[in-house]
Amino acid sequence: MSTTVNRKPIRFYSDPRRVIVRFFFPGPEARVQSIIQKVHDMPEEAAKLSLNQSLRDFSARHRNISKIYKRHFGRVKEIMSGRAGDLDALSQSKQLLIGAYFTSEYSIESAAFFNPSMVEDPDQTGLMEGQKRVIISFRATGEGHISSVVFRGGVLDKDNNLSLVPTGRLIDEAESVKNFIYHKSEFMSKLSEMHADDEMVKHVMSKLRDEFDYNELLRAIDETRRELRPGEAQQKILQTISWLGDSHYEIDFSLDTGISDRVIFPIAAAESNGIEDARFVKFTDDDGRVRYYATYTAYNGFSIMPKLIETRDFYKFKVMPLHGENAQNKGMALFPRKIGGKYVMLARIDGVNNYIMFSDDINRWGEAIKLQEPKFPWEFIQVGNCGSPIETEYGWLVITHGVGTMRKYVISAMLLDLDDPTKVIGCLSEPLISPNEEEREGYVPNVVYSCGSIINNDELVIPYAMSDTASTYCTVPLKELLSALVPSDLQRGRKAAQMAKARVLVVEDEVINQKIIAGILKGDGYDVEIAPDGIVALMQISKGRFDVILSDIAMPNFDGYQMLEFIQANKIDIPVIFLSGHTSPEDEAKGLSLGAADYIRKPIDRNLLLLRLQRLLAK
After folding, report:
1. Taking Cα atoms as reference points, which of 173, 150, 394 lies closest to residue 280?
2. Cα separation, 57 vs 456, whole angstroms
3. Structural contact between residues 260 and 153, judged by C-beta atoms closer than 8 angstroms
4. Pick the residue with more confidence: 182 or 504?
5. Residues 196-203: contacts with CB under 8 Å, at least 24 apart
6. Distance (Å, rounded) from C-alpha 258 to C-alpha 270?
7. CB 136 within 8 A of CB 152
């Protein structure tokens, strides 16, 4: 059944003016030494004037730029390790000037601004009735196609119109702290999952205690390099060990930063080429405590690693890899609470189908159960999730995506049982959102995609990307969407499969008729699925059992007569009742000769429809 989608006028575009500073190392070493020597040879006054000029140029663009220069000078000194002379003997001005030469700006949003997720802000104070403060995360892409996570803040009003908090220019990159304690057995297990399991790993691990920290790991790797003089293949194994160690860290933003000033930029080697598609979710523990998680994909240029972010306030973040045989692909999305005492996760472990996993440990994911596979032509290439499931009183609402011809991405939905989410209550038979003329143009054409939605004021609020270039959002009436997903009438606690009178497939291309007919049938105890045309009807007939088909005749692509001919030719034993507003005696005779069980004229009369169905099913 076609569902109302209210597209909102707000657009989120990339802003090349939003820049952070990065350590810049121009290499090779001879070039580095030459730069340092030139600063060393400068007259002191000239060094001060050059430094002051740089501070004037950049102090309004960055918080405490002199502190950054000092930190980058320290990194140069550590890298050169005495090979450029005694750098500590230089004046403070020359030290800061060297730091300035080894610093560059990076525009984090210059290329694209896409794949948003929306969650409730931890701070809901000072709002009027019907308002909700939200945080929207985005995947921002800059030079070299390096992705980071950025944020915007705003308030939804009672009509779900969004007022955005103005963005600032002073973007803050967090301080990173590597203070994680590793367990040897778990560390080696993850290396095995990454196909790094050989004698080199055993040699490094033999130097470590059962529990070790990051610095101990680095020392063990350095000692192994000196002792074994590894070749190219062995160096890659050591690099993988280092990447895994880099993957645990904590980041901390200053309390004087606004939400739009914070950027989570790749820190670990395993994510050097980007942090992709963070799916944020507000998670409530069994004891009622709330924290926020986000799953994302780390990419280093040739391999991926699923990772997990944890935060309570969006100032302090804890980052860690996800372990387990099925934590190896993109698109993992965590349920917002435990079910039956276990964490639950959606995944697309084979790149094609949707799966569900259960675990006692939020960091370890093993056995997976297939939940959904491509069923309709608009999703034949693959299906996946568009963020964490949303709990409703009728089931877990999962926003999904499907990929069809010409690699066109669309957004759809399915509903899972609240107590047993391995059971699919219903799926939409057509896209909820398909890229329109504006949305289809961009860096990756014909794509709409989301990483997480919320419910507010009885509407589903979906932020989504437009062809990997910009983003927007829309709202969907929640009851209308649930009615399209639930085969039976919306009655909490009803066991539809046990109590339904019959399963009816309604094949109708006009939205108003879909809603009228479905409403009549569901209200009288029938399970109903909708097909918007004959092609989708054939797909549904091939996958499920129906007791009767109600079909319009005049439809695009594949009309009612063609569908009935197909059913008869393939000896499918389902009676078909034709619905038509322009039926002549000749049309009726044609349909009956093809095998139609009955004709009902439009506009549909409720009592006549139910009586005809009852009579047909009683035979």
Report:
1. 150
2. 45
3. yes
4. 504
5. 196/237, 196/240, 196/241, 198/237, 200/224, 200/228, 200/230, 200/234, 200/237, 200/238, 201/237, 201/241, 203/227, 203/228
6. 28
7. yes
Q: Specify the long-range contacts of residues 561-567, CB closer than 8 Å, at least 24 apart.
A: 561/590, 561/591, 561/594, 562/534, 563/507, 563/534, 563/537, 563/538, 564/591, 564/594, 564/595, 564/596, 565/594, 566/538, 567/541, 567/595
Alpha-carbon span 211 to 185, nearest angstrom: 9
User: C-alpha 396: how far from its chain's center?
Assistant: 17
| C-alpha span between 71 and 74 (Å, rounded) | 5
Token representation of residue 126: 């000072």
Q: For the packed helices 214-228 and 199-206, what is the interaxial angle rounded to 10 degrees? A: 120
Q: Are 453 and 487 in contact (CB under 8 A)?
A: no
Look at residues 530, 598, 600, 595 and name the one whose alpha carbon lies nearest to residue 564.
595
pLDDT band at 494; cut points 50, 70, 90 = very low
d(CA 578, CA 573): 16
Token duo for residue 555: 């439809």
Q: Looking at this protein, which amino acid is placed at residue 550?
A: L
Q: Which of 504, 448, 457 is nearest to 478 (CA)?
A: 457
Parallel, antiparallel, or unpaired for β 390-392 and 576-580? unpaired
What is the pLDDT confidence band of residue 233, given thresholds at 50, 70 and 90? confident
Cα–Cα distance for residue pair 128/133, rounded to 1 Å: 10
Polymer length of the chain: 619
Q: Which residue type occupies 423?
A: K
The number of helix segments (H) and strand segments (E) in the chain equals 15, 35
**Which pLDDT band holds residue 327 (cuts at 50, 70, 90)?**
confident
* H helical segments located in 22-64: 29-41, 44-58
3-state secondary structure 279-329: EEEEEECCCCCEEEEEEEEEECCCCEEEEEEEECCCCEEEEEECECCCCCC
Find the farthest-apart pair of alpha carbons in the chain and give their distance in angstroms, rounded. 104
pLDDT value for 490: 62
Strand locations in 142-289, DSSP E? 147-156, 162-164, 172-173, 175-177, 181-183, 211-213, 249-252, 262-264, 274-284
Q: What distance in Å separates the CA atoms of residue 542 and residue 574, rounded to the nearest whole number?
A: 12
Determine the Cα angle at 397 with ends 393 and 399, to 5°: 160
Sign of the Cα torsion 457, 460, 466, 468 reads positive
User: 362 near 343, Cβ under 8 Å?
Assistant: yes
What average pLDDT score do residues 404-427 get? 97
Q: Global pTM?
A: 0.85
Instruction: State both tokens at 225.
Output: 């390099």
Burial of 309 (0-12, 13-18, 19+ CB in 10 A): buried
Would strands 249-252 and 132-141 be described as parallel, antiparallel, or unpaired?
A: unpaired
**Distance, CA of 350 to chain centre:** 17
3-state secondary structure of 134: strand
The rounded distance, in Å, linking the Cα atoms of 96 and 116 is: 38
> Rounded distance, CA 141 to CA 110, Å?
7
pLDDT tens, position by position, 545-570 = 899 999 999 888 888 999 999 999 99
